[in-house]
Design a protein that fits this description.
Elements (H helix, E strand, L loop, with lengths): L3 H10 L17 E4 L2 E4 L10 H4 L3 E9 L2 E2 L2 H14 L8 H12 L6 E8 L16 E8 L5 H6 L1 E7 L14 H12 L4 E6 L2 E5 L3 E6 L2 E4 L10 H12 L4 E3 L2 E2 H5 L3 E6 L3 E8 L2 E2 L7 H18 L5
Helix pairs in contact: 1-6
Length: about 325
């Protein structure tokens, strides 16, 4: 497990002095929704006193859209409600309003889309305690969804193990993601795509993904709880396994079980399902995507096709 100090030093050494970061506004984002209005992306501004900016006091969701339809919209909205409740905020929009806002944003393009939405506790004097009254900041934008290439799906990705040094409420989809950012950067500097996190000798999840292993044909993923984000794609994989009589268990994954797995997968709303073929520099299983992954990938693609056609929700 590499050191965070080394990771930061390595990352800083690759940036030329005085060189600005890449622009945050991408050419593909033309309009956003901000506090009740649709505005040009380049004109969208928030107060520097917003608690999301000052404290990371807010939550977010990332929702894919395929063929102009919001993928697992109900499940994403349910998770948003749970996150907002956990931080003591009421949802600022009713569900029908969320639906109309998201559909309007994705209507700007015929491409599959990735929607980012964020709700913060709004603008207030800087004080750790909650303000007496709250006027939430609501921000949403959509951009083309980039899914894994055929090459990646055929060859797999590399991951490393890292200590899970995040807080105790990882089930809240909070905007304060600095620990996740540092852990992902640790993986990047190591030449890997993701860091799989270890707490008390057990694998929890990736820095920005959920994890599955396969051993003797049985699919296993860590159980839900405060240590992991309840991933929407994770839940769909469990559903697809159950529907198709694939043995699947939700139970703890000791590090030894991860290292001895026949297959390891990652999943998220934007990366969908990825095979892991290298763990800490050592090949996983046969060193190529396994048969269980290939089957699940086909089931996932079929589900998406049925969703596009309006035959699945």
């Amino acid at each position: 497990m590499g050191s965070i100090a080394y990771t930061l030093a390595k990352a800083q050494s690759t940036q030329k002095e005085g060189q600005p970061n890449q622009p945050l506004l991408m050419n593909s984002v033309h309009q956003v929704y901000l506090n009740g209005e649709f505005v040009p992306a380049q004109s969208a501004t928030i107060s520097v006193f917003d608690r999301g900016f000052i404290f990371g006091d807010g939550v977010y969701e990332v929702i894919p859209a395929y063929g102009g339809r919001l993928f697992r919209f109900t499940q994403h909205m349910d998770r948003l409600d749970r996150s907002l409740t956990a931080i003591g905020l009421e949802n600022p929009l009713v569900r029908d309003k969320w639906n109309s806002v998201l559909l309007k944003l994705i209507s700007q393009s015929d491409d599959d889309q990735s929607i980012y939405l964020q709700v913060t506790r709004g603008v207030a004097a800087r004080d750790h305690s909650f303000p007496d009254s709250v006027d939430c900041t609501v921000f949403v934008y959509a951009q083309p969804l980039v899914t894994p290439s055929t090459k990646i799906l055929q060859e797999g990705v590399a991951v490393i193990l890292a200590k899970d040094n995040r807080w105790q409420r990882c089930d809240i989809k909070a905007v304060s993601l600095l620990p996740n950012v540092l852990l992902r950067q640790q993986a990047t500097v190591s030449g890997a795509s993701e860091a799989l996190l270890v707490r008390d000798g057990k694998v929890t999840e990736g820095a920005a993904s959920n994890v599955f292993i396969v051993k003797h044909g049985v699919v296993v993923t860590p159980p839900k709880g405060p240590a992991i984000l309840p991933g929407i794609t994770r839940d769909l994989i469990v559903e697809l396994a159950t529907e198709n009589s694939i043995p699947c268990r939700e139970e703890d994954i000791p590090v030894g079980a991860l290292r001895g797995a026949d297959e390891v997968w990652l999943c998220s709303s934007t990366k969908e399902i990825l095979p892991v073929t290298v763990l800490d520099g050592t090949q996983v299983g046969a060193g190529q995507p396994g048969p269980a992954f290939e089957r699940m990938l086909q089931l996932y693609k079929h589900y998406k096709d049925e969703f596009r056609a309006g035959r699945r929700n």
